[in-house]
Write a structure and sequence with these properties.
With about 425 residues, the protein is an alpha/beta fold. The protein has 2 domains: about 290 residues, 3-Layer(aba) Sandwich (Rossmann fold), CATH 3.40.50; about 140 residues, no CATH class. The chain has 18 helices and 13 strands. The strands form 4 sheets. A 5-stranded parallel sheet has the order 2-3-6-1-7. Strands 8-10-9 form a 3-stranded antiparallel sheet. The protein has a 3-stranded antiparallel sheet with strand order 11-12-13. β2, α6 and β3 form a beta-alpha-beta unit.
């Protein structure tokens, strides 16, 4: 770090005359530590972990082609004057080939900006520029969503020979940071995003970003970051770091790029990134519990079905399940639901068929309904019930949907391909009693 940067961050030069990067010279670990100190000097966050998040996100833009996915960064706040534009200004100095845009006028413009190579797109005031009520926003959102993974493209008309127009597939893959006051972004965009919550610095705890004074130091940091990430590029491309338990699917796509950067840096960075991932998963779980996450009706139905299915019940008629659902969650399935009327057996069956390919069947008495074995595997896959495991191991097993326990009707699962089917209640005494 230069002498003026040390002065700004309040640090003292190291006694050994090194460059102040934590004893690691120009290593990636030292550079990330310097950038985190830089962000701490100028940006006010609600949780100091967000300074680490901003550092990792800025670093990953330099190797986004190697990470194959790039999480969208949402810079959020509850009120103006919280420093969102300031963060974008700092990212503009540190990220790969940045484009700072107050707004985006068209999806065609966005794709043409990326035609010559990957760039970091920094969008301010997305609470207005990406307002769902604004005409044409759907196309812009679609481009931003498609550019979340490497290989994303958008067809664009370009001039061809003889005055004809030809269709060209232009790339959309790029890192994107979006700033706004509580922006109303679609759920599919939020699921691709990591959020940083900013707050006003009413106590004057951070320095003003006077770019006339600090521009040279920012340029030095940016050069150090670019050089360190270039050296780490091949490692980032090949490393497959371990992620916290439960970090799968879309969550893994969001966090794996940052964990790969953390693995390249070493030191405390993998542990810090694991904390960030666990925090993200906890917040998502709390939002689900508080009803803040908008789930598709079929997913709500799946959870409510588990809530109304009593232990030991193997088969329940369709009409009985519908009545139980209405009593269990009247606001969603009853007369007062947003759908406009009570859940019917027909709509119930249609939701299950379209979302999960679960069809009703007839009992030996000719009653139409559903067996619990039809839902066991789906409940496991959606995390509603834990995956069954073999004794002493964490190895998951396959739920057998085509068979049911002859004693209670529960679905069978098999600890291994060679083992006999065991009741989903996993109660050997239960089977013994039935045999007796």
């Amino acid at each position: 770090m230069t002498e003026s940067a040390l002065r700004i961050t309040g640090e003292s030069p190291p006694p050994d005359g090194s460059d102040g990067s934590g004893g690691s010279g120009g290593s990636l670990e030292g550079v990330l530590t310097d950038i985190r100190a830089w962000f701490r000097c100028y940006i006010s966050v609600t949780d100091d972990l967000d300074l680490d998040l901003l550092t990792l996100w800025a670093a990953h833009t330099h190797v986004a082609l190697e990470t194959y996915s790039t999480p969208r960064l949402i810079l959020d706040s509850t009120m103006p004057g919280s420093g969102k534009t300031t963060v974008l200004e700092h990212l503009h100095r540190l990220c790969l080939a940045p484009i700072q845009a107050a707004s985006l006028s068209s999806p065609a413009l966005l794709t043409r900006m990326l035609d010559k190579g990957i760039r970091t797109i920094l969008i301010d005031e997305v609470d207005r520029s990406l307002d769902p009520k604004k005409p044409g926003v759907e196309d812009l959102i679609a481009v931003l969503n498609s550019g979340y993974k490497r290989g994303g493209t958008r067809p664009v008309l370009v001039p061809g020979k003889g005055g004809e127009w030809e269709v060209a597939e232009m790339p959309t893959y790029s890192p994107v940071a979006m700033a706004g006051n509580a922006p109303n972004l679609p759920d599919d965009t939020r699921s691709r995003s990591i959020r940083v919550l900013l707050m006003p610095d009413l106590q004057g705890l951070v320095e003003s970003s006077d770019w006339e004074e600090i521009e040279p130091d920012a340029r030095d940091l940016a050069e150090a970051l670019a050089n360190a990430m270039e050296e780490a590029r091949e490692f980032v491309r090949t490393v497959r770091p371990e992620l916290p338990a439960g970090c799968i699917g879309r969550i893994k796509e969001r966090w794996n790029p940052l964990m790969r950067v953390a693995a390249a840096a070493g030191g405390e960075w993998p542990g810090i990134t694991a904390q960030l991932i666990e925090r993200d998963m906890r917040e998502a779980e709390m939002e689900r519990e508080d009803g803040l996450t908008k789930l598709p009706p079929a997913v709500v139905l799946l959870g409510d079905l588990h809530g109304v299915w009593h232990d030991g019940e193997g088969f329940i008629r369709s009409s009985e399940l519908v009545e139980r659902l209405i009593a269990f969650n009247a606001g969603y399935w009853g007369e007062a639901s947003s759908y406009g009327h009570r859940l019917t057996v027909q709509r119930f069956g249609r939701l299950l068929t379209q979302a999960f390919k679960v069809f009703s069947s007839k009992s030996p008495e000719g009653i139409r309904g559903y067996r619990v074995g039809q839902f066991e595997r789906i409940w496991h896959r959606f995390g509603i019930t834990p995956l069954p495991v073999t004794a002493g191991t964490a190895e998951t097993v396959r739920t057998v949907q085509s068979e049911s326990c002859s004693i209670c009707g529960q679905g069978l699962w098999s600890p291994s391909s060679k083992a006999e089917g065991i009741c989903a209640k996993r109660d050997q005494a239960h089977l013994s009693r039935g045999a007796a």
